[in-house]
Structures are given as structure tokens and as C-alpha cells.
Write a structure and sequence with these properties.
635 residues, Rossmann fold, disordered C terminus, ABC transporter transmembrane region fold
């Protein structure tokens, strides 16, 4: 039997069968994705039909060549038949290339549509979704499941159509040539299929085991080869044990690979043997009929050639349900992500942020982080069931107002709710009660684009993408010129550093910016903020990773950046707190004190206690005559 037929048969037999009912909703949604490609799909089906017709024509013509030779016919007839066979071969080749290109166009087009839909949808998910989801599981939906879904169009569709046409034509021609031999050949089909399916099930189990082992080994490598993971191993890990554990996983992958290769060889050999037996039956019984004059010699050859085009379609069609169901499972896993409704959605009536300086107002805000079942999927967290806990209120009636161009500082113990307040302003989460207003408008009534253009945020981790300095800065303002970029870098005290880099702005900063120091990464994010020129600025411990020298330099840039802008600052340095127009002290999700620095110190409450214990400021002392020095504040 032809190599391509065995390859196709092998893929069918080793497919993982999912015994699940057809979902009409799923089929309708698949149809919606397929609708833009319906013209290509129709042409694809027609090409498959034409290729199947040509595949059956060749054995018939070969039989006629043999009959012409045996009967002593005209040489020109043999030449014409040979030329016709050659033309059919050329036509098959051309249709094959065209069909493959059309298949690739159809399949890759569907992959593009599905990936774009999933990617766009995931971008709309709240931050809580990403804090729970395993990145690898989510990426798998964009890769493995999307590719599995497109096989229904590029592979299964053409396989089913081509096999049906080939099977019908081959059976019709074989029954015409000799119904007795045809029926006997079909009797051998169970001997052909049953062992194949049993072996296929065994191979499928081994392949699933191999996939799991490879995934486990890949996860371990990903964790150990990331910059934080490699650092952790070097600091606390034991290289010998790490090597031994990896080697054990690799050996298991090797062993399953050897078993799979052996089983595949046995599988193909067994099928080839059964096919050879069927061919022996055709030649033996057909030759016996031919010698008795009941069958033409050419018919025996045609039957033998047609047999190779009969068993593969029969077996493939028998396993077509497996392929279809596997594709449906992939589609359902993709749709599962698409059906996860974002908690934060833009209203159809959303409007722009008002022009000019804007105020920020928190009005009796109450908020609790959503439970997992509201923002995630068990399959993406790789757990049996989602945690239904959550929703406990962490902010209790928080109210304050930051006037245009003023700075409000938030201080308090760890876990008091400072970062939560900061995340509600750019609408990374939505409040459960109360309102957050920008420019007098509830952020839930604003367009996402205008809110992004108005509110800028610098977080503590200073995250950068594995890209160039230029690309990381242009996230803030894609139309910025090179002069604008260097101006922002200069104000963030990074210009000299970037100009000294080998490729300047085109230097790749590495994964999460790990090729830069902690202070440099943070100043890069501040440069990004300066470039964006947003009217409201949120600094979530923006100077947390800076030494005193860098902090002083960046503080100058921040002073310039905050000028005439409304700012919410989570305090890390005393200088930032003292410069604020209003200081809010948060404890357990409530504002317990508010006022200016001197007022709060004089009140002798919680702020004064934090000042003494966590700010650890030094006053001038008579002995040393040194000025008060700021030290790290509450985090």
C-alpha cells in the first residue's frame, strides 16, 4: 500500500477518541468561523473529488495496457494508454500541489481567525484572570487547540470527501471487473481493521504518556531557565540533585520514545502484512479465473491496483469520527476561553474623559477581589475544580478627592489596601459599590482608550518586555520621535546609559528587563510614563528599587512629571510623603487618618507611629549636626 495511505491510517488509529455527543451550538459556531472561507472550502472539496477520480482511473488504464499486450494489440494503443497514464499522473501532481496550497491557505486562515479572536478576548480579561491562570495552559489554547481545530478543515474535510469518492468509484469498478474477488477482499477487512485499532489504542496511550512527560520536562526547563528561576537555583539549589531529577525525567521520555517507535514499526508491519495477504488473494484467485478464461489478465492487475485504493479509505472513514470528535474537542476548548465573560466591559454609551486638568474622586468605594469561578477556568489553572472562595470585602467605604494638579499619598501597613486603591483608578478592577470618578465621570462610563490616555501608572516591579529599549518606550506613545524618546530618557536620568549601549535605543533589554539593574528598569518605566504625558499619574512605590543616589535623580524627574498633574502616590520614601498635598493612612481597608505631614505628626496617631517605627527618619542631632535623612518608608 502507498506510503501516504499508511501515514494517514496511522494518524487516524493513534488519534485520541473523545466519546462525546455532537453539540449543535458548537457546530453553529464553527460554521460562523468557516463562513468567510466557504468559497475556498468549496473549491477544496472539488479538487479532492477530481483527485479521487484520477486516482481510480490509473488502475483501469493499466489493466487495459496489460490486456492490449496479452492480446497482441496495436503498439500505438499501448503508447496512447501510457501517455494518458502519464498525463493523469501530471494532473494528479498539479492538483495535489494546488490542493495542498489551498489546504494551507484555508487552515492557516482559520488559525489566524481563531488566534486573533482568542488573543483579543484574552486582552479584555481582568487582571484577576492573569493572576490565576497558568500562562502555559493559556498559550496552549492559542497553539495546540487552535491547530487541532483547523485540522477539521484542512485535513478531515478533504480526507472524508476524497475517501468517499475514491471508495465509491473503486468499489464500482472492482464489482464490474469481478464481484467475487471484490466480496472476498471485503471479507478480509475485519482482519485488517480490528488489529489496527487495538494497536492504535495502545499507541495513543503511549503518545499521551509521552506528551505528559514532555510537558513536565518542558515546564521544569522553563522554570529553571528563566532569569529568576536560574538565580534561585544558583542561590539555594543543589546542581547534582537538579541534574539527577532532570535526567530521570529525560530517561522516562527516552523509554517511552523507544516503546512508541517499536510499536509503530509493529503497527505498520502488521498492516503491510495484511495488505500483502489481500493482494495475494487477488493475484491468486484472479489468476485462477484468468487461466480459466473467466477474467481478463488486465482485470487482475486493475483489481490489485484498485485494492490499494480501497483499504485505506475504508479504514480512514471508519476512524473519521475520531478525527471529527478530536477537532470538536479542540473547538470547544477554544470556545471555552471565548465564552469566559470579562468582568470589565466598555459600555456602548461610554464617553471621553473631559478635556483639561482632571480630578480624581473615590466615593464610598467598597471592593472585594472576585473569586476564581468568576474570572478563570479550572482547565487553565490545571485544577479539578475552581476555588469558590473570595469576594470578601477589602476596601470599606474609602472616600477621598484629589483636586486637579494635586498629589495624594497613601501610606499604611502591608496589606492595608493601598495597591488595591491604585488598581481601581485605571480600572484594572471595578468597584463593588460606590464610584471612582475621573474628571467628575465614573470610570465605568468612560471609554477604555480615553482612560488609558488619561491615567498612567508605574508599578513596583518595573516590568519590561523582552524587546528593545525603543519598543518598550513606544508602548506609551507609538508616534513618538527619537528626539522625544531621548528627552524622556534624559528626564528619567537614563540618557547617558542608553547612548552608551551597543545598539542604543535598539538594544534588547532581555526577559522582564533583566539585562538592566533594578533601578535602571524602574527608571525605564518612569521614562515611559514621562513620554505618555498623561494627566493623572499613579505611582505604586515607583522608587522602591532605587538606591539613594538614583532615587534623588529620579525624584527630580518625578517632580517634573507630576507638575500640574493629579497624582496618587503610594509612599515609599519620606520625601514623597512630605511633598504630598494630602496624606491618607489606610489600615484594614479603611482610611483612619488624613491630613498634611505636619498635621498628622502633631496629631500623634497612626501616622506618627509609622513615622517613628517604619520611616525611621533622623532629626538633626546636636552631636553630629547632620540634617534629617530620609529612609525607606512603609511598604
Amino acid at each position: 500500500m502507498e506510503t501516504t495511505a499508511w501515514t494517514q491510517l496511522h494518524s487516524v488509529m493513534t488519534a485520541q477518541e473523545e466519546r462525546r455527543p455532537f453539540a449543535r451550538v458548537t457546530l453553529r459556531r464553527i460554521g460562523a468561523f468557516a463562513r468567510p472561507h466557504r468559497r475556498r472550502m468549496t473549491l477544496f472539496v472539488l479538487l479532492g473529488t477530481a483527485t479521487a477520480l484520477l486516482a481510480v482511473a490509473t488502475p483501469v488504464l493499466a489493466g487495459r495496457v496489460v490486456d492490449t499486450i496479452v492480446s497482441g494489440g496495436d503498439e500505438s494503443t499501448v503508447v496512447r494508454l501510457a501517455l494518458l497514464i502519464a498525463l493523469i499522473a501530471l494532473a494528479e501532481a498539479a492538483l495535489g500541489i494546488l490542493g495542498r496550497r489551498l489546504s494551507a491557505t484555508l487552515g492557516e486562515g482559520l488559525i489566524l481567525d481563531l488566534r486573533t479572536a482568542v488573543f483579543d478576548h484574552v486582552q479584555r480579561m481582568p487582571v484577576a484572570f492573569f493572576t490565576r491562570t497558568r500562562t502555559g495552559a493559556l498559550v496552549s489554547r492559542l497553539n495546540n487547540d487552535v491547530i487541532g481545530a483547523q485540522r477539521a478543515f484542512s485535513n478531515t474535510l478533504s480526507t472524508v470527501v476524497g475517501n468517499v469518492v475514491t471508495l465509491v468509484l473503486a468499489l464500482a469498478v472492482m464489482l464490474t471487473l469481478s464481484w467475487q474477488i471484490t466480496l472476498l477482499a471485503l471479507v478480509l477487512l475485519p482482519v485488517f481493521v480490528v488489529p489496527a485499532r487495538r494497536m492504535g489504542s495502545r499507541m495513543a496511550r503511549m503518545q499521551r504518556e509521552a506528551a505528559a512527560l514532555n510537558a513536565a520536562m518542558g515546564t521544569r526547563m522553563t522554570e529553571r531557565f528563566s532569569a529568576p528561576g536560574a538565580t534561585l537555583v544558583k542561590l539555594f539549589g543543589r546542581p547534582e540533585e537538579e541534574s539527577a531529577q532532570f535526567a530521570e525525567r529525560a530517561r522516562r521520555v527516552r523509554d517511552i520514545g523507544v516503546r512508541t517507535a517499536t510499536a509503530q514499526t509493529v503497527f505498520i508491519t502488521a498492516l503491510t502484512l495484511v495488505s500483502a495477504l489481500a493482494l495475494a488473494l487477488v493475484y491468486g484467485l484472479g489468476g485462477w479465473f484468468a487461466l480459466r478464461g473467466a477474467l481478463e489478465p488486465g482485470a487482475v492487475v486493475a483489481l490489485a491496483l484498485l485494492l490499494t485504493r480501497l483499504y485505506a479509505p475504508l479504514t480512514s472513514l471508519a476512524g473519521a469520527r475520531v478525527e471529527v470528535m478530536s477537532a470538536l474537542v479542540s473547538f470547544e476548548r477554544v470556545f471555552e476561553v471565548l465564552d469566559l465573560r470579562p468582568l470589565i466591559e466598555e459600555k456602548p454609551t461610554a464617553r471621553e474623559v473631559p478635556d483639561g486638568p482632571v480630578s480624581v474622586e473615590f466615593d464610598d468605594v467598597r471592593f472585594g477581589y472576585p473569586s476564581a469561578d468568576k474570572v478563570s477556568l479550572a482547565s487553565l489553572e490545571e485544577v479539578a475544580a475552581l476555588d469558590t472562595r473570595g469576594g470578601a470585602e477589602v476596601l470599606h467605604g474609602v472616600s477621598f478627592r484629589a483636586e486637579p494638579g494635586r498629589t495624594v499619598a497613601l501610606v499604611g501597613s502591608s496589606g492595608a489596601g493601598k495597591s488595591t486603591v491604585a488598581q481601581l483608578l485605571p480600572r484594572l478592577y471595578d468597584v463593588d459599590a460606590g464610584a471612582v470618578r475621573v474628571g467628575g465621570v465614573d470610570v465605568r462610563d468612560l471609554t477604555a482608550a480615553s482612560l488609558r490616555a488619561t491615567v498612567g501608572m508605574v508599578t513596583q516591579d518595573g516590568h519590561l518586555f523582552h524587546d528593545t529599549v525603543r519598543a518598550n518606550l513606544l508602548l506609551a506613545r507609538p508616534d513618538a520621535s527619537e528626539a522625544d524618546l531621548f528627552d524622556a530618557l534624559r528626564r528619567a536620568r537614563l540618557e547617558d546609559l542608553v547612548r552608551s549601549l551597543p545598539d542604543g535605543l535598539d538594544t534588547v533589554v532581555g526577559e522582564r528587563g533583566y539585562r538592566l539593574s533594578g533601578g535602571e528598569r524602574q527608571r525605564m518605566t518612569i521614562a515611559r510614563l514621562l513620554l505618555a504625558r498623561q494627566r493623572v499619574v499613579v505611582l505604586d512605590e515607583a522608587t522602591a528599587h532605587l538606591d539613594n543616589t538614583s532615587e534623588a535623580a529620579v525624584q527630580e524627574a518625578l517632580t517634573e512629571a507630576l507638575a500640574d498633574r493629579t497624582a496618587i502616590v503610594i509612599a515609599h520614601r519620606l520625601s514623597t510623603v512630605r511633598a504630598a498635598d494630602l496624606i491618607l493612612v489606610l489600615e484594614a481597608g479603611r482610611i483612619v487618618e488624613r491630613g498634611a505631614h505636619d498635621e498628622l505628626l502633631e496629631a500623634g496617631g497612626r501616622y506618627a507611629e509609622l513615622y517613628r517605627t517604619q520611616f525611621a527618619a533622623r532629626s538633626e542631632d546636636a552631636a553630629g549636626g547632620r540634617a534629617e535623612e530620609d529612609t525607606p518608608a512603609v511598604v
